[in-house]
Amino acid sequence: MLAVLAFGAVRASGALPPTGAPEARTTPLIRKIPSTGEQLPVIGLGSWITFNVGDDVAARNQCTEVVRAFVSAGGRVIDSSPMYGSSQETIGYALGKLAHPNVFSADKVWTSSQGAGQIEESRRHWGVPRFDLLQVHNLLGWDDHLPLLFSMKKAGHLRYVGVTTSHGRRLEELEQIMRKEPLDFIQLTYNPIEREPEQRILPLAMQRRIAVIINRPFNQGELLDDLASHPLPNWARDVDARSWAQLILKFIITHPAVTCVIPATSVPSHARENVDAARGRMPDAAMRKRIADTIASLV
Amino acid sequence: MSEWWTYRLSDFLMFSQRTYNRLFERYNHDVWPLHLVAIAIGVLILWLARSGQRVAGRVTSILLAISWLWIAYAFFWQRFASIHTYAKWFAIAFALEAILLLALPSAIRHPPSIVIALILLYALIPPRHETFGLAPDPTALATIVLTRWPLRIIPIAWCAFSAATLLAMATR
Ligand SMILES: NC(=O)c1ccc[n+]([C@@H]2O[C@H](COP(=O)([O-])OP(=O)(O)OC[C@H]3O[C@@H](n4cnc5c(N)ncnc54)[C@H](OP(=O)(O)O)[C@@H]3O)[C@@H](O)[C@H]2O)c1
What is the pLDDT of residue A114? Predict the structure, then answer.
């Protein structure tokens, strides 16, 4: 019920196209962070596995090309974590090489103790003066870390505070935290075959005015692997999707609660293709259902 | 953890196969021609196992200990640590095995030479060309066949971890 109401409210507010012929977008879709109204491009960039390349200069340069492609296509949000091996250092390397483009730095705290020390180390890896967003990774020690993050925000050392989960884990606990804490962001998994968040979490995020980052849009690539042997349906052209990846991203970003989705890639052309999913025509509610039903029947 | 059943092997893999292969490619490049020394050590161990000499066990345990210490430092501490959060713990475990090898030379046994020879041939397998004495997998395998309990515990644990990593990479 909450979900139905939320969808209706957003359609009325114009965030979703009305049912019928979708409009084409020439500029990439942007969404507002509810707590401040700041605008963000809806397609971001993840860094789990893809950017954990160690100190291999050739591989770091390849990742720099991914960031270059992402930023020049109009992307801004980059997500990482101290849990991702050398990914933070790779991002810092890329940002340095690209003369520090205007990205929205989203990192995490992932430790059962010593949050402040870990955050400072992460910041040094990124080479940024402060993080835009810090999230408690997988809700680990959230009751200890949130007071620290809120105090950093108050002191101006951080702009936004959030928590993350993934794979549909611990959604009940996430819901409780969303009800209790003044979060700016949550991050969780949502895609055409993992739709449980539509029931409670996404409507609640809209109600509580919490921005939503979506991780694992392709279930770490598995979804695309499973779809690879199936031709893209002709009707995907009606929403200007040129690939399964774009169709999935368009499905995700047109949920009204979603602020940003963060696919990871090691391929510059994939980064461009992903950002481009925020351009062109967008699916309406009927088309979203068609996308989800079709993909669910194929995988 | 109540949601443990939602985890899969691939959820614990934190690097891609390409990155893992590159790590070995660069390691092999950096340490060449130490491979020749490592293979010579392997051949010496093979010869000792056949010779049945009294000092064979002692010398084999020292040679294996040198290999384990080298891998702890040059592979885990210096290189694998750049892509794996817990690599330093693996380094410590490998150093501990080196100490155990030195402390328990009587736990050395002499398997059929063909088994050791096959492990030395591991280095020929592309793309990682993991060489006995330099890379953890063939060194752990050789140690399992060349020792008795309790010296087999750490090598078996490493082989289980490595098999899980290879399986996760293959099924991704
Ligand atoms: N608890 C948490 O906080 C949490 C948990 C999971 C994930 N995350 C975040 O969410 C991000 C995204 O999740 P994920 O990395 O697990 O998986 P994902 O984004 O669902 O999938 C990544 C895979 O998709 C492939 N891919 C991306 N764009 C593509 C395209 N246009 N065409 C074909 N293949 C494409 C990539 O391969 P190529 O390299 O070949 O492009 C990569 O292997 C993570 O990187 C991380 O930042 C957070």
Answer: 84
